[in-house]
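Subject: design request, 288 residues
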């Protein structure tokens, strides 16, 4: 029997509503459903009685797959808790764009039937890791070193494999995976990188020097970022989650993570199909 864990962005009523529709459909098909504890509290009694509830971090013990309802942030939240497990994650997009959560609620019934028939593919996505004060943090999209003060840019010296690359004066520096190339890095002028490429991208955020541009490097490189500005303070952010703060003279090392994240993708589409759809690359400009 297929076992599925379900997570929803609880702050959005439509995300919860779509999750309930999917849960009811799964129970009708005799799928064993596990609900994230917060979602279980919002489920109607008749539906809750047909499901089990558990913490997200325990889904790997009970579920063959996890489905998220929300946007890319909801999927990243699931990935954060499931890092190190082999549990695939399927993202259903309730928001506007959704590069990671590529399944749409408008085709939810079709997606559910594809899932039940095994008509999907699972892809491996690389991660990043950073060790900060003896604790290791992971990211699927990016690790960000950004200014802690809204009124002051930071100065960062970047090195790759102990070779000095650049001195950035900017609002921050992003180190992105290919998966994260379509997230914050893209909005900061970084390139789109196909997920199969064995590379990382260093992208400065609003650099003071116009000639400084994003840099693509091999993903087996060690990246060191040193905060060099006087009386500077910066914060470390992994996939939107603040994990710590550094001061002038501190050095952080970022490298490819030891874990991968498994994502569920449509069997009948490719990464390039998704780009054309999300970025309107095939749209007729005359119509806009």
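Subject: RE: design request

Done. Sequence follows.
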């Amino acid at each position: 029997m297929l076992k599925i864990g379900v997570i929803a962005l609880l702050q959005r009523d439509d995300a919860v509503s779509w999750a309930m529709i999917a849960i009811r459909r799964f129970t009708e098909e005799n799928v064993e459903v596990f609900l994230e504890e917060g979602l279980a509290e919002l489920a109607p009694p008749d539906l809750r009685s047909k499901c089990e509830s558990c913490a997200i971090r325990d889904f790997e013990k009970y579920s063959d797959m996890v489905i998220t309802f929300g946007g890319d942030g909801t999927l990243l939240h699931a990935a954060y808790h499931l890092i190190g497990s082999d549990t695939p994650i399927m993202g259903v997009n309730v928001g506007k764009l959704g590069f990671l959560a590529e399944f749409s609620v408008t085709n939810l019934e079709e997606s559910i039937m594809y899932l039940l028939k095994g008509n999907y593919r699972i892809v491996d996505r690389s991660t990043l890791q950073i060790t900060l004060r003896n604790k290791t943090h992971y990211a699927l999209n990016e690790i960000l070193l950004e200014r802690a003060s809204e009124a002051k840019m930071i100065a960062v010296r970047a090195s790759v494999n102990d070779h000095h690359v650049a001195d950035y004066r900017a609002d921050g520096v992003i180190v992105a995976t290919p998966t994260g190339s379509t997230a914050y890095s893209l909005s900061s002028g970084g390139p789109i990188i196909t997920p199969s490429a064995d590379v990382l991208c260093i992208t400065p955020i609003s650099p003071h020097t116009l000639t400084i541009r994003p840099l693509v490097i091999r993903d087996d490189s060690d990246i060191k970022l040193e905060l060099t500005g006087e009386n500077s303070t910066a914060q470390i952010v992994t996939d939107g989650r603040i994990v710590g703060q550094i001061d002038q003279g501190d050095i952080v090392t970022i490298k490819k993570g030891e874990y991968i994240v498994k994502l569920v993708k449509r069997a009948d589409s490719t990464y390039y199909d998704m780009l054309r759809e999300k970025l309107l690359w095939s749209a007729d400009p005359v119509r806009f």
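The longest strand covers residues 251-266.
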